[in-house]
Specification:
Rossmann fold, alpha/beta, three-stranded parallel β-sheet, 3 strands
């Protein structure tokens, strides 16, 4: 969610991978933490920082949205809402995995690496240690 804000405000970031973001900060905080203030006022105050409000500034830079089908916290519909807010642009790739919130499945990692290799014009990594390391 913070990556969406950073990418929206920094054109030096040429692509973004957003893993299980929720469209609004209130979707996360109001559901799981007590907020003493009025809920409507809280949502109003946070609106300009909500990922759904800023994601439209990312394209035409490539964006990969990754979501889990078994996520207790973030429904898959959040991905559809974010992709729509981004303009439904071809630059936004939405992927869903048979996983939980942590997206700790091989397909999600493989897709992230392939996306970054493609958009950053990197050569495929031989292993996870990095170039010139063993």
């Amino acid at each position: 969610m913070l990556a969406a804000l950073a990418a929206a405000d920094d054109p030096r970031l040429s692509a973004a991978v957003l893993m299980a973001p929720t469209p609004r900060w209130g979707d996360w905080f109001l559901a799981f933490w007590p907020i003493a203030e009025d809920r409507i006022e809280y949502l109003r105050a946070m609106r300009s920082l909500d990922p759904v409000e800023v994601i439209g500034r990312l394209p035409p830079r490539p964006v990969l949205l990754q979501f889990a089908r078994r996520d207790f916290y973030i429904p898959l519909m959040a991905g559809l809402e974010l992709r729509g807010a981004a303009g439904g642009d071809n630059a936004v790739d939405l992927r869903a995995y048979d996983a939980e919130h942590d997206l700790h499945v091989p397909d999600a990692r493989t897709d992230r690496l392939a996306f970054l290799e493609r958009v950053l014009a990197l050569s495929p990594a031989e292993d996870a240690t990095g170039p010139g390391q063993s």
